[in-house]
């Protein structure tokens, strides 16, 4: 298998697995229990919370562990009326979608709406486009609104500093950076003002009840410590992206375009390519038969036959839009894999042209 779909999910790494292994079997006490055996998971969760906080320049008490970004995003929706961008992941598509956030804020405030939360993703999951979230936070705060960012595709690929962004909420999902699936976090700037919709045993200081996923939390902490953005690690992504683009230029038998939103910069681990008059679904299938895993457009939309709303919004031409694939890398990919992928891609495109 050549796995080039890390934006959909990554493999848990060995150091992360080793860190969580004891908590999968041997250390099974409920961290809320009072005997000493429960101190082990309790301390492990404390350490994980510190590691997660440090990785995004937050305070440990500002971290709420969740089952992933979908839950984190949904928790934010419970805090007020959402104004979001048209590029959001389906888990953040609620409330008002705005082309012009300021106009939408003004409109809602004229109607007397309080607790408005502006939400803008940090990195787009389909194209890898990086947004200037600091600017959106400023717009929100200047009008007395809150600001949330879905940073699911950002962590590990660009530095995240919640104090610098000045966000009120931030969502992350561990499986995008070599932690297990089913664990994530929500950063909350003012946890004492957070309204939790989850009623129960009062875990996570009452902000997210339910017995802690100790192994997941430990894995998330380790992964955030190990795989936070570093220029050195990112050099590898740059090399893979450069190899893909250069090899494509030399080998691709048809016209193609690389998609990004509004000409903004993109992360180095995601490349969204549209091939002119090629059936992207058939292409992804042919690649799959050869053992190459890429996403057809975006994994989040693969259940739907409709072309991606994001690509439509950025006016990718009709004869390109259905020929879209998303290639995404992780630290585990090699240059050789990328070269063999492009060779196979070129061959399959030729086959589809005939
Ligand atoms: N937000 C973005 C930008 C994503 O890319 C994803 C997953 O692809 C999610 C949220 C949802 O993450 P999860 O399925 O881990 O809850």
TrEMBL record:
Enzyme Commission number: 2.8.1.7
Domain Aminotransferase class V, chain residue ranges per copy: 2-338
Cofactor: pyridoxal 5'-phosphate
A single MF term (Gene Ontology): metal ion binding
Reaction equations catalysed: (sulfur carrier)-H + L-cysteine = (sulfur carrier)-SH + L-alanine
Claim: Iron-sulfur is one of the keywords in the record: yes
Class of the enzyme per the UniProt entry, highest EC level: transferase
Organism superkingdom: Bacteria
PROSITE patterns: AA_TRANSFER_CLASS_5 (PS00595)
Entries under InterPro entries matching the protein: Aminotrans_V_dom, Aminotrans_V_PyrdxlP_BS, Cysteine_dSase, PyrdxlP-dep_Trfase, PyrdxlP-dep_Trfase_major, PyrdxlP-dep_Trfase_small
A Pfam entry, by short name: Aminotran_5
Keywords: Iron, Iron-sulfur, Metal-binding, Pyridoxal phosphate, Transferase
Family that this chain belongs to: Belongs to the class-V pyridoxal-phosphate-dependent aminotransferase family. NifS/IscS subfamily.
PANTHER family registered for this protein in UniProt: CYSTEINE DESULFURASE, CYSTEINE DESULFURYLASE FAMILY MEMBER
Entry protein name: cysteine desulfurase
């Amino acid at each position: 298998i050549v796995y080039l779909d890390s934006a959909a999910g990554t493999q848990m790494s060995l150091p992360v697995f080793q860190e969580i292994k004891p908590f999968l079997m041997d250390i099974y006490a409920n961290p809320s229990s009072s005997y000493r055996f429960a101190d082990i998971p309790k301390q492990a969760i404390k350490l994980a919370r510190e590691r997660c906080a440090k990785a995004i320049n937050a305070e440990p008490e500002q971290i709420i562990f969740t089952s992933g970004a979908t839950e984190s995003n949904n928790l934010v929706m419970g805090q007020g009326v959402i104004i979001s961008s048209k590029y959001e992941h389906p888990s953040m598509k609620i409330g008002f979608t705005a082309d012009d956030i300021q106009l939408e804020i003004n409109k809602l405030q004229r109607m007397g709406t309080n607790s408005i939360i502006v939400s803008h993703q940090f990195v787009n999951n389909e194209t890898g486009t990086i947004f200037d979230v600091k600017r959106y936070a400023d717009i929100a705060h200047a009008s007395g609104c809150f600001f949330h960012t879905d940073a699911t595709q950002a962590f590990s690929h660009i530095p995240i500093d919640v104090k610098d962004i000045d966000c009120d909420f931030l969502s992350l999902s561990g499986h995008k950076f070599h932690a297990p699936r089913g664990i994530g976090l929500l950063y909350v700037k003012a946890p004492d003002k957070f309204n939790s919709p989850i009623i129960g045993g009062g875990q996570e200081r009452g902000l997210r009840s339910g017995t802690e996923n100790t192994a997941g939390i430990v894995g998330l902490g380790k992964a955030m410590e190990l795989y936070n953005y570093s220029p050195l690690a990112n050099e590898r992504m740059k090399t893979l992206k450069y190899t893909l683009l250069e090899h494509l230029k030399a080998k691709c038998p048809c016209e193609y375009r690389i998609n990004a939103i509004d000409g903004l910069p993109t992360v180095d681990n995601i490349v969204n390519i549209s091939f002119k008059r090629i059936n992207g679904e058939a292409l992804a299938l042919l690649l799959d038969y050869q053992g190459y895993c890429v996403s057809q457009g975006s994994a989040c939309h693969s259940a739907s036959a409709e072309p991606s709303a994001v690509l439509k919004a950025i006016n990718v031409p009709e004869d390109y839009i259905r020929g879209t694939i998303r290639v995404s890398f992780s630290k585990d990919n090699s240059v050789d894999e990328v070269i063999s992928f492009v060779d196979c891609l070129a061959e399959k495109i030729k086959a589809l042209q005939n």
